[in-house]
């Protein structure tokens, strides 16, 4: 028997595609190579599953720097507000946290995964787990089904590729979908890591003296070689044994990847950390000087403890050329001004990032000009649909990628069912 729709991949995009297709009355088969569905969804948002983000549509799109504008049509049919209503309709209460991030009230990703899988089952979608797909089959310029690694051939009128990116492969996302897109004639744009920790060979990184130090509410900037700011992001960051991570660093990472590529092999990219985004360099200079003046006999390294993260003080003083035991009476003017500059723009030379496999999200993917933004259908191969991270779309962490997965999944599933119904006659 030929299915109307076969969905390959049971992540958020594939599960939503199954739901939307089955709601249209299509016969749907979901195949996944893993033994469990929604594995990556289950570890997203620190295991609490950041299901979507409650921002207005334009803001949402701005937070999807990898081709977010492509999603306007898809959001018309199924937006972040529809995602929230969808889960509440399943009895999953959501709560809003900082920056519009939406989580289940249970704080457990399992609640979300179980609700999605439960809905897929309730709609009568057939499942095949532990069933890796080897190929999508094309016949006479149209999709005809899929071939499993076991050799079994499953026929269908439409196929939805929802195989995700290449990041965190133990969740099942190993990038299998790209080759099937290419076989259909699609371009796959260059893949690269995004939302990924940044590496640095700076002395304070190599010495590990800042490892584990978290900075709150800083601004991290990425600079080009001409000294022009490429991007800045506010938030928290953490020093690691290889460089920097945390939300601000992850958001900057894709710009670092691109700038490093432009710089060529062996090049580095300058980042700066502003420890006090709301103060000017002069404010900082005056404030630090006042602190020293208030306790003139104390060494500045101790005076500054109330203001700066303690472990950063020796590094800052060293970079400014100040002795740790200098006191107010003998503070040299120029290095003190330099110290204020460093507090406002602590430099980090980025030399790379962790790998695409270690990234949270894969940048690049199926070229969007070859995909219909309303239906997610291939413009090159009738009956072939794409959704989720396999597409050349990526957002910041904060629920944006999952939102993109749900909206493209919904549109792909619904359109695939409609196309199959039309083909059935
Ligand atoms: C640790 C972590 C935290 C994250 N946190 C956030 C966050 O807070 N906010 C956010 O927006 N995004 C977050 N993301 C990203 C988000 O989880 C992904 O963008 C999203 O899961 C992509 O959904 P998808 O449906 O496209 O693919 P995936 O979730 O990757 O699912 C793909 C599915 O396809 C299956 N598959 C692959 N190849 C085959 C094959 N050959 N045959 C059969 N099945 C196959 C896989 O087994 C898998 O089940 C996070 C990612 C990670 C790794």
From TrEMBL:
Domain RsdA/BaiN/AoA(So)-like Rossmann fold-like: 4-414
Stored Gene3D superfamilies: FAD/NAD(P)-binding domain, HI0933 insert domain-like, Translation factors
Cofactor: FAD
Superkingdom of the source species: Bacteria
Keyword terms, alphabetized: FAD, Flavoprotein, Oxidoreductase
Alphabetized GO MF terms: oxidoreductase activity
Enzymatic class: oxidoreductase
Signal peptide residues on this chain, from the entry's feature table: none
Name the record gives this protein: NAD(P)/FAD-dependent oxidoreductase
One Pfam family matching this protein: HI0933_like_1st
Residue span, RsdA/BaiN/AoA(So)-like insert domain: 192-361
EC number: 1.14.13.-
